Amino acid sequence: MHPGSRIGAVYLYRPAIDFRKSIGGLSALVEQELGLNPFGEALYVFINRRRDKLKALYWHRNGFCLWYKRLEAERFAWPPAGSSEATLGVTLQELEWLLEGFDLWAHRPHKTLKFQSVT
Questions:
Q1: What is the mean pLDDT of the chain?
Q2: Which of 28, 78, 98, 103 is 20 to 30 A from 71 via CA?
Q3: Residue 89: partners with Cβ closer than 8 Å, 6 or more residues away
Q4: CA 28 to chain centre
Q5: pLDDT tens profile 68-112
């Protein structure tokens, strides 16, 4: 991402997209299909059918930025598209793990425990 860009939310678009779509098509998808603001402080991440390419779209000050990553030998782990929600929100840390090849859905972190007392 562009240094200094503020990313408040990361949305993974679950279904695979046609990778011929560029900034215009992806920003229209965000606005019209998802009902989200493509000009906000969010990063929208899309995947192709083979799951070996990612595109990430975000707005920076005065224009859209489109980031693209192609894997040469592996595939990205991706949330199933069968859910009723078209997007899945993740943290920036989880996005980094996803880009590094970790399957966020197969390996969940330890549960957070909240105790009231020690006895």
A1: 88
A2: 28
A3: 9, 10, 11, 12
A4: 16
A5: 999 999 999 888 777 678 888 888 888 998 898 888 878 777 788
DSSP 77-90: ----TTSS-SEEEE
- The three-class DSSP label of residue 65 is strand
Q: What is the pTM of this model?
A: 0.82
The owner of tokens 């906000």 is: 40
The strand pairing partners of 57, in sequence order, are: 44, 66
Separation CA 99–CA 117 (nearest Å): 39
Tokens coding 48:
């192709």
- CB burial class (10 A; 0-12, 13-18, 19+) of residue 54? buried
Tell me if residue 12 falls in helix, strand or coil.
strand
User: What distance separates the 2 farthest-apart alpha carbons in the chain?
Assistant: 60
